Every structure is written in structure tokens, then in C-alpha cells.
Amino acid sequence: MDKLIYVDNSATTPVSARALEAMLPYFTECFGNPSSVYSYGREAKKALEASRQTVAQAIGAFNNEVFFTSGGTEGDNWIIHSVCEQNIKKGKHIISTQIEHSAVLHTLDKLKTQGYEITLLAPDTAGLISAEQLTAALREDTVLVSIMAANNVMGTLLPIQALCHVAHERNVLFHTDAVQALAHIPINVRDLGVDFLTLSGHKFHGPKGVGALFARIPLVPVPFIHGGGQEKGRRSGTENVAAIVGMAAALEEGVRLLDEQRERLIPLRDKLIAGVLQIPGAHLTGDPVQRLPGLASFVFDGLEGQNLIMHLDEAGICASAGSACSAGGKDAPHVLIAMGYTEKLARGALRLSLSLYNTEQEIDYILDRLPGLVGSLRTKGR
Ligand code: PLP
To answer: pTM for the whole thing?
Structure first.
């Protein structure tokens, strides 16, 4: 292969041509500050509101339920802190899961130091959380349930609609981190019933450093970043207009191409899974059926995932051992440990995540190279 093969789309995606084209004028001729009253400003404001409408439509929300953020991490931090502040009289108990992204888990760790009690539900061996588990964990003083829609390490899809129903039956608010799910599976906030949802532009061919938070009317989040009162006083800071426009264009395109994505990616993913499982000591992680269309994830007996990633890199293949956040470190993905894998096995993780830009030829190349790399690493005892 002459060019690099990029199969780490769960970490980030390349910006689509359409998103880039939509963004470009907002760096140059349409550079105005949306808060300015003259024409440059009005033009930027118009683009901002059109983008809000595009994002709202893509998730089945009203325009004024969408707040722009700097990405998934901010959205998760913001809404968890906001719900705590608004429900201080009700209690200090939050329910989440052991397989959340660190944007949620570390926020909850911080709240623990402020007297909050956190219940982290344990997944089953496929990474699923059941309605019964949630029912058993809910308490009178529970203020929030936060459960991700799709897991970033092994791609399992969580039953958000059913879990949200359980929380609402007990009058508890429900947030879902849909960063990995949006524009990969159909997401409609009304069908799911969620009160809050976090999304991030760079996971669906939009730019990095931009995202959005959905908050169901009349549940307005309390300000987290203070200043000039942008986003109706809820999120201060001059809006990143170009990035917001690019994210909206990418989201519109991603949602429009959902069917095509399913049809193209599932056969590629399943070919990859079937091929990798031919390698002795390779195991699929996550639910075999309830999983993201483009995500194939494995653990290998007797192997360090990080070493495999480095050798794949030398072969021109960009992949990851788990989440991008742990890619630099030697930690076993906490998600796999929570699912019952031993630390040793979890350290042998490999995640291959596809996008519409991947081809069958690339899958064939990976399947051609991977067995030899695994074999030689095992021989060297790594
Ligand atoms: N939540 C999940 C499930 C993620 O996978 C990520 C990023 O990998 C984030 C949150 C953080 O999003 P961002 O990179 O936009 O801050």
C-alpha cells in the first residue's frame, strides 16, 4: 500500500470535503463576530443560527435546545455539573457506568470529593447494562443517570431508550454521551426520551474542538463558562463560527448517509472480524450484534496491544489499542477490565474503526499483514 491506512476513526475522523468547503468562507470573507451588529456580524450570526437548526434537525430537537460547546469533554462536564447545581436540594447521588469515557468518569471523581455518591454500573461480558441493574441502583436522592449511547473502546450500543424510561419512571434526569453514536447510528432525542445529550464534531468528519449539548426544554443548563453571555447567557466565549458551520455540514451529511454507511461498513467490519478471528488467540470484544457499524475490537492472548500498534504503524496502518485517551500510555483499557477481562488480556487490545473512506482493498491488506505481526510479536515474547 502506498498510502497510510487509517482505521482509527473512533479517535478522530478526517474533515469531509463538504464540511471543509462550508467552513472556509468563515475564516476569510465572513470573519465577523456574531455579537457585532453590523453586516459582518449579522452574517456570522445567521450562519450560527442556521447551523443550530441543522444540528437540531439532525437529532430531532428544537433549535433552542442546542448549545454549542468545544466538544464532547466540555458537554459531559457541563451537564453533569449543571444538574448537580440545580438539584442540590434533592440529593447527591449519581448513577453512571464503569465503561464511560473519562470525560464522564473524571467529572464524577471530582464530584466525589465534594460529597457526591457515585454508583457505577458494571457491564456484562458484552459491555451491556440492563434496565434491571439501573432499577436496582436508583434511589430517592439520585439526581442524574449518565450512560453513553455507544462505547468508544469496543463499540457496544447501550439500550438508551429502555434505560431512560427506567430513570424517568423514578423522576430522575437522564444524560447520554452520544459522541461515538451520532452519525453512526440513528439518534433522535425524542425517540430516546433523553433529557441531555452530548455530541462532538470530530467523530463524524467535522472539525475538532467543537461540539454541542442538547438540553430538553425547559431544562436549561446553568452557565459553566462565564463571560460575555453568548449562547443565551449559558456558554460565554466568542463562538467558533467556522468550526460550528463545519460540524453542522458534516452532521447533516453523516445523517443523510447513515443507510449507505450501514450497507458499506457492516460487511467490511464483519469481514475484518471474521479474518482477525482466524488468528489463534484472537477474541472479539463487545457485543457481536449490538455494535457500531464500523467498529471491530479484539484482544490477543500473550500480546501487548501498544507493541502491536507500533508494528502496525510501521506497516502503514493507523489503529489503536483502545481509546485515544489511553493510546499514549500502557494502561489496559478500563472498559475491558470492567467487562471481566484480566489486566493481561486487556493489555492485548486492538481497535479498528472504519469510515466510509475505507475500502475493501485496505481490509484485505490489514488481514494480510496482521497474522504475521501478531505471530512475530508473540515469538519475541511481547
Ligand atoms: N465521550 C466519548 C464517548 C468519546 O469517545 C470522546 C472522545 O474520544 C469524548 C467523550 C470526548 O470528546 P472530545 O474529544 O470532543 O472532547
So the answer is: 0.97
